[in-house]
Every structure is written in C-alpha cells, then in structure tokens.
C-alpha cells in the first residue's frame, strides 16, 4: 500500500504513535508504563519500528534490544534479540510483506552493530509470534523450553556460540511454592490489564497472593517462564505462560482447587 511506511519510534515520538493499540497516555496506564520502560532501555539499544498507514494508522511493530538486556530468560549476549513482532490490526494489512520488512531492518542494524546475529523466542501456542517467518528467513531452532517455546537464531558467523534458554528455570520455579504469584514486566503492555481483577478474585478465593513487578532485564531473565514478561504460578506450578483475562484465571483456579 502506497500510504504505508516504517517509522522509527524514539522517546520523543512514542507518545504520538502509542504502543500495541494503546494510544491515550492519559487514559491507559499500560501506555504510560511502557513509555517509562522504553525511555529507560532506549539508551541501552532498545529499538522499536512500527508499520504506519495514513489511512489505517498503527498496523504493526517490531521491538528488539541487545541480548544482554533481553526480557526473556535467555543467554543471548552479543546477539540482537527480538522481543515481539506483529502486523495487521486490520486484515487488509496482513500478508503484504511488512513483517519481513521490519525483520530485514533489524537484521541490517545487527550487522551494522557488528553483533553475532539475531535471536528470538517463538511459540506454537498463543500470544507470541510463530516461527514461520523466521525459518523462511534462515533462522534455526537452537533450543526449546516448556511447554512449547522455541529459541531461534540467525547467526552471521556459524562459529559463534548459540544462544540458549536459562538452565535454571525449573530451579527458580521452586521459589514460588506458596500460593499465587503474579509476575509482570512493563516490557509487554498487556501484562497490566486484568491483574487487579485477578488479585481481587484471588482474595475472594482466600489465596495467598504475591505480585512481582520485574524491574529490570536481570529480574526477567531469572523468571521460571520462557515468556519472561508475565507468568502466573500457583503452588509451584505455572498456570499461565502469558497474560490472561480474569475469567480465564477463575476457570483455571476452579480446576486447581476443585471448586
């Protein structure tokens, strides 16, 4: 489409374009927290590019950061790491090659920055990008994590060491054996929504509840869930690997506590 362009998001213009469908800084705490997080990590190499249409508005994005600061439990130092990519709030913008254009810009920047390559976590399940676009671009699957996460990499030099998931995820899970633990990071704006409602439902169920706001990359990299930026744990068991609605939470807990 002729009116579509890729725009580099900066601390100066992020409020103008919004993030992931959140556009009103005054209305959406999700956007305010994302902007604060973006400004913190931008000097460390965090970048975001969006697909913008004069007619359709914000229609996609790709976010990436040097692997040292990846908000996933991975060892990816030296690689550019993709947090998320999507295109097409409206169907007419899907299948036009915009996601590939975003990916190509990320790869070019990684090469220009003399990094080892580009890495990304994908998932066969919901809420994350599937591996299709990366496999077509030459990425290879180098590691897996429960229940259905994959770590892919495009290496610029095959002799470079593969990135990998943190090996202590199961060990970290043992720290959360008592009640309900909610972990979230401002990296993903969707982690804000529904959390207060989940906490209220947990109170009604008389569940001991702990909310953990992950403040930096190190905290996220030491979570027990491959999604990193969000996790729900009940008595040492991950009950959701991604943000969910309060209704979904209540249905899960009814099975867990046999209500």
Describe the structure.
This protein is globular. The strands form three sheets. The protein has a seven-stranded mixed sheet with strand order 1-2-3-5-6-8-7, with helices on one face. It has a four-stranded mixed sheet with strand order 11-10-12-13, with helices on one face. Strands 4-9 form a two-stranded antiparallel ribbon. By secondary structure, it is α+β, with helices and mostly antiparallel strands. The protein is 26% helix and 29% strand. Helix 3 (98-112) links the parallel strand 5 (80-87) and strand 6. The longest helix has 15 residues, at 98-112. The chain has eight helices and 13 strands. The chain has two domains: 4-165, Gcn5-related N-acetyltransferase (GNAT) (Aminopeptidase); 169-256, Glutaredoxin (3-Layer(aba) Sandwich).
């Amino acid at each position: 489409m002729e009116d579509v362009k890729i725009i580099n998001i900066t601390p100066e213009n992020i409020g103008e374009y919004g993030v992931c469908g959140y556009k009103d800084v005054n209305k959406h705490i999700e956007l305010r927290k994302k902007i604060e997080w973006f400004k913190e990590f931008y000097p460390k190499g965090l970048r975001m590019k969006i697909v913008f249409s004069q007619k359709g508005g914000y229609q996609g994005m790709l976010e990436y950061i040097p692997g040292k600061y990846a908000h996933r439990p991975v060892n990816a130092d030296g690689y550019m790491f993709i947090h998320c990519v999507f295109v097409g709030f409206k169907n007419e913008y899907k299948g036009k090659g915009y996601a590939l254009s975003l990916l190509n810009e990320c790869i070019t920047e990684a090469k220009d920055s003399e990094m080892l390559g580009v890495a990304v976590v994908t998932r066969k399940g919901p809420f994350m990008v599937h591996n299709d676009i990366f496999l077509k671009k030459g990425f290879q699957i180098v590691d897996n994590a429960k229940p259905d996460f994959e770590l892919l990499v495009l290496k610029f030099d095959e002799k470079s060491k593969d990135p990998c998931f943190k090996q202590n995820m199961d060990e970290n899970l043992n720290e959360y054996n008592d009640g309900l633990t909610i972990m979230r990071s401002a990296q993903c704006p969707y982690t804000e929504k529904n959390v207060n409602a989940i906490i209220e439902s947990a109170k009604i169920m008389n569940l001991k509840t702990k909310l953990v706001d992950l403040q930096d990359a190190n905290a996220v990299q030491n979570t027990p869930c491959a999604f990193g930026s969000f996790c729900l744990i009940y008595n040492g068991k991950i009950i959701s690997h991604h943000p969910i609605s309060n209704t979904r939470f209540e249905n899960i807990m009814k099975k867990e506590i046999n209500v």
